[in-house]
Amino acid sequence: MTELSYPSPTPSLACAQSPARRRALLAGCTAHAIHDGLTDVIYVLLPVWQAQFAMSYAQVGLLRGAYSAMMAGFQLLAGRTAARWGRKRLLVGGTALAALAYLLVGCAGGLGVLLLALVLGGLGASTQHPLASSLISDAYEPGGGVKQALSQYNFAGDIGKTLVPGMVGLLLTVASWRASVLGVGVLGLAVAAGLWWLIPADIATARAKTAKGGAGSGSASGLRAMILTGTLDSAVRMGFLTFLPFLLQAKGAGTAGIGLALTLLFIGGAFGKLLCGYLGARIGMMKTVWLTESTTAALILLALVLPYLGLMAVLPLLGLALNGTSSVLYGAVPDLAGAGKRDHAFSLFYTGTIGGGALAPVLFGRLGDLTGIPFAVVALAALLLLTLPLAWWVQKGLDSAGGKYQ
């Protein structure tokens, strides 16, 4: 396995690059946190909107689905558009559009305006994953540490998922829902303004010069295998999260117990995203994926037979393994894509993972209706094992691309 041959920067050049690298990482992490927060705060607001606008459950699903569909469907367009208009402009503009959507939500007088606002919000959100990921990759590649930086980026998204919905939940106890979402919109606009200042304008230029020195050529087959691996991993994660409350309920858990269980799972998941990126850099992509996915499959099966307290005890570890794989896969994208194609590669990756996560609850929910939840959960664990040979194929792609996962 050969390492990528990057030109070694002089000490003075490395020092000069360091502030720009840190700003790029901070910008990417900030963008991930606010976008994931804006995306998941919808879960807090859906019951409020249902009562406010007298919506059916089908209409509630339409609202959430519209946001997710726009976010997933336009990521490829975001990657292509960035090549023409610039990554910085598009990422800042997308953040501002997502924020403005919440200002429109605060003024919505009916379902039509609410749906339009969420469509616009999903369109704005489609810019974040591919552009912020490639920004960090390009900033950190010359001096090394891409995988560790992407794991921090991944972790930041979970911080946003915790803080923004939590903040809105608290605001709803003292203010109206309209005032709360207007506050979220103002916060998003402030972050967009901060991103314009944070994102280093010279990262793309510096990366282009470095690429001439011999960046990896990429691997199309490895990239396809990695996208499929991520899609299956996301599908199993979303499918299991759908069934977990029902498993807990069958073991005697009440509403408070289910809430605590999900909190334990999400805490483990957040640290899994951070730690597994570093683990992948140390022992390699394939070994890490085999470790996390086989552990996840075993713990999913164990969840069927453990009593309530036993399941609660293993949920943090399950969350760590369940979410940790994603950080390792993100780190493989830059090498498999090759220089100059990262925006597009990250767009493909996130389209697959978000799409898989959206379809899995529907498909496995139907399977659960037909066969029962235990069989559906076993099927999820079996599906996850398909990622093991795929990870071997991804590793072959990394080797042929001339890259070393580090």
Write up this protein.
- The protein has 406 residues and is an all-alpha fold.
- The chain has helices spanning 11-53, 57-73, 75-85, 87-106, 111-125, 128-140, 146-171, 177-198, 203-211, 220-250, 255-283, 285-305, 308-337, 342-371, 373-384, 387-400.
- The N and C termini lie close together (12 Å).
- Residues 1-16 and 204-215 have low confidence and may be disordered.
Which tags fit this structure?
406 residues, mainly alpha, Growth Hormone, Chain: A, 2 domains, 16 helices, disordered N terminus
Would you tell me which CATH topology of the largest domain applies? Answer: Growth Hormone, Chain: A
CATH class of the largest domain: Mainly Alpha
Order of helices and strands: HHHHHHHHHHHHHHHH
What percentage of the residues does DSSP assign to strands (E)? under 5%
- Unreliably modeled segments: 1-16, 204-215
Helical segment count: 16
User: What profile does the largest beta sheet have?
Assistant: none
Structural class: mainly alpha
Helix content: over 70%
Estimated radius of gyration? 21 Å
Distance between the termini: 12 Å
Organism: Azorhizophilus paspali (Azotobacter paspali)
Protein name: MFS transporter
Pfam families: MFS_1
Keywords: Membrane, Transmembrane, Transmembrane helix
